[in-house]
Design goal:
alpha/beta, disordered C terminus, globular, 6-stranded mixed beta sheet, 258 residues, 4-stranded antiparallel beta sheet
Length: 258
């Protein structure tokens, strides 16, 4: 299989002295869907931001499609076009229509013709179920709809790797499923993805690999079956017991309050 991502000895320290990542080694092959889970503050978001060089690593090497992003002199803006990122907040341009939000990057960065870019934008909006919102503005959309537009905008650059940083954390509960459904569709299409998420059931169902982070280190990694049914590390068992237990309790509360 083609290695889409190779990470070697990745470390990230901040000026405060805080070490967010303490030596990460990982790989993603073409078509992998990797769920990154772990307690708050474990380094999950910092890991994603380092992978596309929004945060410059303190140490280590990152390869995407065989190109070392951490090498001196690399054109990171060029290489970053192959790495899509969907943030917790939607980061849409409020003064642009939905269609223009999706078509902007291809016209500006890839010099795609306006008509072609708009046709591609409409195809992507159709894919995420928002073709009828093409001429709307972000303020006219729900949170779930805005996040789906953000996903379509990411896809417009035709990335070979997409990073999702807790894509449902800013959404109301009833809007989460519509976003998860789109991500699931991408997984089924063979897109290579890393997904930081607190949605444990979703991680278990969609991923073919799961990475558990704590204190900037990979606590353990393996298949969803191994991680969720038979974790090796006591700390992983404790974490999953807490988050899955909380989810069960929440479901019980919702069920008792129709």
């Amino acid at each position: 299989m083609v290695k889409k991502l190779i990470v070697e000895g990745l470390k990230k320290s901040f000026n405060t002295g805080f070490e967010a990542l303490n030596g990460i080694d990982m790989e993603a092959e073409e078509g992998d869907v990797i769920a990154v889970i772990g307690p708050s503050g474990s380094g999950k978001s910092t890991l994603l931001r380092c992978l596309n060089m929004l945060e410059v690593p303190t140490e280590g090497r990152i390869f995407v499609n065989g190109i070392e992003l951490t090498a001196p002199g690399v054109d990171i803006n060029k290489e970053r076009r192959n790495i899509g990122m969907v943030f917790q907040q939607f980061n849409l341009f409020p003064h642009l229509t939905v269609k223009r939000n999706v078509s902007l990057a291809p016209t500006d960065l890839k010099h795609t013709g306006k008509q072609t870019a708009e046709e591609q934008a409409m195809a992507l909006l159709r894919r995420v179920g928002l073709e009828d919102k093409a001429d709307s503005y972000p303020r006219q959309l729900s949170g779930g709809q805005q996040q789906r537009v953000a996903i379509a905008r990411t896809l417009a650059m035709e990335p070979s790797l997409i990073l999702f940083d807790e894509p449902t954390s800013a959404l109301d509960p009833e809007m989460i499923n519509e976003v998860l459904h789109v991500i699931q569709d991408l997984a089924h299409s063979g897109m290579t993805m890393l997904i930081v998420t607190h949605e444990m059931n979703f991680a278990r169902d969609i991923a073919n690999k799961v990475i558990v982070l704590e204190n900037g280190l990979i606590l353990e990694q393996g298949s969803p079956e191994q991680i969720f049914q038979n974790p090796r590390e006591p700390r992983t068992r404790q974490f999953l017991s807490m988050v899955l237990g909380a989810g069960t309790a929440k479901q019980n509360v919702n069920a008792s309050n129709p």
